[in-house]
């Protein structure tokens, strides 16, 4: 077996979760700082546009949206990180506490099981690569 095959194709299961969230852009610093305070070091931040229940509207009653034909895309920020399963609940709670305003448009959090992570530079896998 060669080194690359051992790293990429080895059937090893790691307990990791990708946490992806869509947030208000003005909340990203607060969320990033809160995650840093619980030891989360690696994350990816991407500017995005989108709409959900809010349908691109600001300060409107939900009932009024039923008759809307056009949807405006609002600026959002996507935050992604892979963490070990033992801290997922703490990460989610931290994001919610830092990002919640109580208004429509606060965002969403999604979680995905991750089979493996590989650090390209060293070939480390699993938790060591995160």
UniProtKB/TrEMBL annotation:
SMART domains: P-II (SM00938). InterPro entries: N-reg_PII (IPR002187), N-reg_PII-like_a/b (IPR011322), N-reg_PII/ATP_PRibTrfase_C (IPR015867). SUPFAM superfamilies: GlnB-like. Signal peptide: none annotated. It holds the Pfam family P-II. It comes from the Bacteria. PANTHER family: NITROGEN REGULATORY PROTEIN P-II, NITROGEN REGULATORY PROTEIN P-II HOMOLOG. This is P-II family nitrogen regulator. It comes from Clostridium neuense.
């Amino acid at each position: 077996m060669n080194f690359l095959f051992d790293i990429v194709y080895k059937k090893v299961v790691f307990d990791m979760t990708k946490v992806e969230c869509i947030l208000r852009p003005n909340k990203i610093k607060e969320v990033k700082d809160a995650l840093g305070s619980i030891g989360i070091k690696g994350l990816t931040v991407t500017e995005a546009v989108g709409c959900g229940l809010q349908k691109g509207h600001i300060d409107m009653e939900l009932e009024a949206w039923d008759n809307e034909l056009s949807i405006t895309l609002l600026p959002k920020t996507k935050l992604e990180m892979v963490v070990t399963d033992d801290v997922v609940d703490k990460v989610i709670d931290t994001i919610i506490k830092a990002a919640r305003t109580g208004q429509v448009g606060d965002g969403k959090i999604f979680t995905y099981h991750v089979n493996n992570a590989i650090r390209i530079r060293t070939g480390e896998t699993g938790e060591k690569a995160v």
